[in-house]
Amino acid sequence: MSQDPSGRLPAAYLVPGSSSFTEFVRDHAPEVLPGARRLPAGGTGALSGGPGAGQPPHATTIVAIVFADGVVMAGDRRATAGNVIAQRDIEKVFPADDHSCVGIAGTAGLAIEMVRLFQVELEHFEKLEGALMSFEGKANRLSAMIRGNLGLAMQGLAVVPVFAGYDLAEGRGRIVSYDVTGGRYEEVDHHAVGSGSVFARGALKKLFRPGLSDADAVRVAVEALWDAADDDSATGGPDLLRGIWPVVAVVTADGFRRLGQDELGEVVRSVVEGRTGNPGGNPLAAQSPAQAPTQQGGAPA
């Protein structure tokens, strides 16, 4: 938005409107919104240069888990462009505000830009209204932003985030998923998005139990990402050589906290040790025949 020659604020800033920063930008400078970008002639295929040409980097996989005091969200660190690893240490989990977070899947560049806009949206609301936006309000605002990207999504540049946080009004952790049209869906207990989500959800179903502690929920999240990386080439597992671990965040009534490298490293090494010689993570695989479950009649299975 151009500066007024007199040095005063442009007239757009003095027009009464809603507390939504996104709506303000849509009214006065719509061309800067992610969904308003024009693709080059020929669409995404016109992008060129090097391996993976024509394929913008994509990010996967994200898992979210409700535990006793809030939610845990974790994401792997790999971004791919076609069959090429575009980046090994991309960030996929971000704080939305003090009590919520967003995990991104889909076209990485657009997704990161959308998250930054969402962060500004929540901060803008808080400054104008003098109060925190409710969890429902935050989930609905993100839904509207995803819907604004529908045109690009139909051209192959989809953004499908997952939103989670601690609902201060209800006193519990919550998870919300979306589709490319902006449709929002409340998830119960756990959820996963991205190309490795099928495998991550299978792990979550087996490992989740109500009332998990934060430490147990973090362990389950890392285990689920391991299973996703084991079967999905677009999902990166822990990189022991480079010391690259998943991004893991914990959100409780006390706020958003990202696990540090050392703290998470202990969890990762424990998972790796447990999977050594037992890559599927089957707890029965390490048992002796005498410890294995028996069939009816008492004979070893």
Could you explain the architecture of this structure?
With about 300 residues, the chain is an alpha+beta fold. About 30% of the residues lie in helices and about 20% in strands. It has 7 helices and 14 strands. It has helices at about 20-30, 110-130, 135-145, 150-155, 195-205, 215-230, 260-275; strands at about 60, 60-65, 70-75, 80, 85, 95, 100-105, 105, 160-165, 170-180, 185, 190-195, 245-250, 255-260. The longest helix has 22 residues, at about 110-130. It starts with 20 loop residues before the first helix and ends in a 26-residue tail after the last helix. Residues about 40-50 and about 285-300 have low confidence and may be disordered.
Main beta sheet: strand number and arrangement?
A: 5 strands, antiparallel
Coarse morphology: globular
Q: Low-confidence spans: pLDDT under 50, at least 5 residues? A: 42-51, 286-301
Radius of gyration: 22 Å
